């Protein structure tokens, strides 16, 4: 009789010990259990690569950008809006002079580059180019027209 006895179930189920603030401990089943379906599915599923969060320089938060944008400072660097071809935009492809075209509008994004939450390197990929495709692929939800309204220099025209 003793040999057929079902072993105490608490010997089969892995448990973990929780303690409350009064330092009382209590044994509860571990979840997800070690060989349980949750862990198997997680192990079999390809996890997306975690992107390193970009650290912006002090004074370059989104709020700081909003402040600069509404400060009245000239961020365009042109006397009036103009019409620009892609080869003209190509002349402005350095960090100190970075233009881009987005949805037919041309922006001088020089003053914004260091405020970009995705980092300088990423945003510089569209400097001197039509950035519409890459921008939309990365974050189509971002309202660039609002973010860069003070950086508008004109409109993209064919060569
Ligand atoms: C003038 C052009 C751009 C503007 C105005 C802009 C604006 C922004 C904004 C507002 C965010 C924060 C979005 C959020 O938190 O939901 C962001 C994030 C990001 N952007 Fe851009 N972006 C531009 C161009 C680009 C380009 C060309 C790339 C890639 C090649 C890029 C890559 C990223 C990435 C990876 C993030 C995520 C950063 C994170 O969450 O850590 N951006 N961008």
From TrEMBL:
Residues 81-157 form the Cytochrome b5 heme-binding domain. Residues 1-27 have a biased composition (Polar residues). Belongs to the cytochrome b5 family. Residues 1-37 are annotated as: Disordered. SUPFAM superfamilies: Cytochrome b5-like heme/steroid binding domain (SSF55856). The keyword Metal-binding applies. It comes from Umbelopsis ramanniana AG. InterPro entries: Cyt_B5-like_heme/steroid-bd, Cyt_B5-like_heme/steroid_sf, Cyt_B5_heme-BS, Cytochrome_b5/Flavoprotein_Rdt. PANTHER family: CYTOCHROME B5 REDUCTASE 4, CYTOCHROME B5 REDUCTASE 4 FAMILY MEMBER. This is Cytochrome b5 heme-binding domain-containing protein. The keyword Metal-binding applies. One of its GO terms (molecular function) is heme binding. Pfam families: Cyt-b5 (PF00173). Keywords: Heme, Iron, Metal-binding. GO terms for cellular component: cytoplasm.
């Amino acid at each position: 009789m003793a040999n057929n006895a079902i072993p105490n179930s608490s010997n089969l189920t892995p448990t973990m010990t929780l303690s409350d603030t009064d330092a009382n401990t209590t044994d509860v089943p571990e979840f997800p259990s070690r060989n349980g379906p949750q862990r198997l599915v997680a192990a079999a599923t390809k996890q997306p690569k975690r992107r390193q969060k970009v650290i912006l320089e002090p004074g370059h938060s989104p709020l700081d950008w909003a402040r600069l944008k509404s400060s009245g400072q000239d961020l365009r660097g042109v006397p009036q809006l103009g019409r620009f071809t892609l080869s003209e935009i190509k002349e402005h492809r350095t960090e100190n002079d970075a233009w881009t075209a987005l949805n037919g509008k041309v922006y001088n994004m020089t003053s914004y580059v260091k405020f970009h939450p995705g980092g300088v390197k990423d945003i510089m990929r569209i400097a001197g180019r039509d950035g519409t495709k890459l921008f939309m692929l990365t974050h189509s939800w971002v309202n660039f027209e609002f973010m860069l309204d003070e950086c508008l220099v004109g409109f993209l025209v064919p060569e």
